[in-house]
Design brief:
Helix 1 links the parallel strand 1 and strand 2. This protein has 341 residues and is an alpha/beta fold. Helix 4 packs across helix 9. The radius of gyration is 20 Å and the shape is globular. The chain is built from 9 helices and 13 strands. The longest helix has 20 residues. Helix content is 32%, strand content 24%. The strands form 2 sheets. Strands 3-4-2-1-5-6-7 form a 7-stranded mixed sheet, with helices on both faces. Strands 9-8-10-13-12-11 form a 6-stranded mixed sheet.
């Protein structure tokens, strides 16, 4: 495929750094790579393949030299600059929540709704979903297609890297200070994150849910194209660096056995089943998921309290499949569709 020019906006951040790695690992046909961040990072150099590339400031960046712009610099920069990138001729793949709920912006998990990428033309923007929603929908698409899903109960155990680089540092510093019996400084999170669990991700809404929880509801319905799915989430931040875990409980419309669900998931794209009822026979964030692109599923079992209930444990690297890898997969599909002769 003919190489194209690509920009990573937010290139110095937790997700931006992984985007650079994933483009290289997947041998994405990049002609020229542009690295863009805030003015604070102007002039800093980062490596891509055998090149050292200077970071440019977003405010003055000229998007007319770029074909695909991967945005992951936060909602405000996306709101201001993604339309400018589109006007300059880019397709924007946006990893923030800025455009996800707009009816004319496709929200894509390639394993679930790749065909919707064709809708990119309406706004020039394709939205990348929230990390927790991506891994959950990858794991739930096969049971959904087989038996439909009426309701999802989910509790998440989310890594600090989802908040960004500063949160990774906060966990490191707090952990060290806690072990040394020092006072803990809370800057990124409102409460101690080291050796703790915070049932609070993103802002509280008027209905008592957090915005992270509402994202899981809105985005799951949009990706699976079913507004009738009930989603009942509790999103929790835990002291893990990389990899989100989720205890997912589904109620299917028609009966689905654990054996059949396991079989379906074993054949599902992007899924690795690790489901053996013995020590270590299940996936975990730090050991199995970190650094990998798959969505790992284990602990698949029948809900003893519900005739059509199934339980699953779903784990994935939030910076990879939850962000960078999903964005690059979207870019690959877009390129195939739009640029293949
Ligand atoms: P910078 O490093 O120059 O601040 P993280 O999610 O790890 O916090 O990273 C956020 C990314 O988004 C970084 O690359 C950061 O750049 C970038 N960023 C944050 N705010 C802006 C902004 N207003 N304009 C451009 N880039 C921004």
């Amino acid at each position: 495929m003919k190489p194209v020019n690509v920009a990573i906006v937010g290139a110095t951040g937790a997700v931006g750094n992984v985007m650079r790695t994933v483009l290289e690992e997947r041998n994405f046909p990049v002609d020229q790579l542009f690295l863009v961040a805030s003015a604070r990072s102007r002039g800093k150099s980062l490596q891509f393949r055998d090149q050292s590339i200077e970071v440019q400031a977003l405010e003055e960046f000229d998007f007319s030299q770029v074909c695909i712009a991967l945005f992951s610099a936060g909602t405000a920069p996306s709101r201001k600059h993604a339309p400018r990138a589109v006007d300059a001729g880019c397709v924007v793949i946006d990893n923030t929540s800025c455009y996800r709920y707009d009816a004319d912006v496709p929200l894509i998990v390639p394993e679930c709704n790749a065909a919707r990428i064709a809708d990119w033309k309406q706004r020039g923007i394709i939205a990348n979903p929230n990390c927790s929603t991506i891994q959950m929908t990858v794991a739930l698409k096969p049971p959904y297609d087989e038996a439909c899903i009426d309701r999802i109960n989910v509790a998440t155990y989310q890594a600090v890297s989802g908040t960004g680089q500063a949160a990774i540092e906060e966990l490191r510093t707090q952990s060290r200070n806690a072990l040394d019996g020092q006072a803990l400084d809370c800057r990124v999170y409102p409460s101690q994150i080291a050796f703790n669990a915070l049932p609070h991700i993103d802002d509280f809404q008027d209905n008592g849910y957090t915005r992270e929880e509402m994202k899981m509801i809105w985005e799951t319905q949009k990706i699976l194209e079913d507004d009738n799915i009930g989603v009942n989430p509790t999103a929790v931040r835990v002291p893990v660096y990389y990899g989100h875990s989720e205890a997912v409980h589904i109620e299917t419309r028609t009966p689905l056995s654990a054996e059949r669900a396991r079989e379906l998931l074993q054949q599902a794209p992007g899924v690795v089943v690790m489901d053996e009822a013995h020590d270590g026979g299940y996936p975990t964030a730090a050991v199995e998921a970190e650094g990998h692109d798959a969505v790992f599923v284990g602990r698949i079992r029948q809900d003893l309290s519900h005739p059509r209930g199934l339980d699953l444990w779903v784990v994935s690297d939030n910076l990879r499949k939850g962000a960078a890898t999903n964005s690059v997969q979207i870019a690959e599909l877009w390129l195939e569709q739009e640029k293949e002769p």
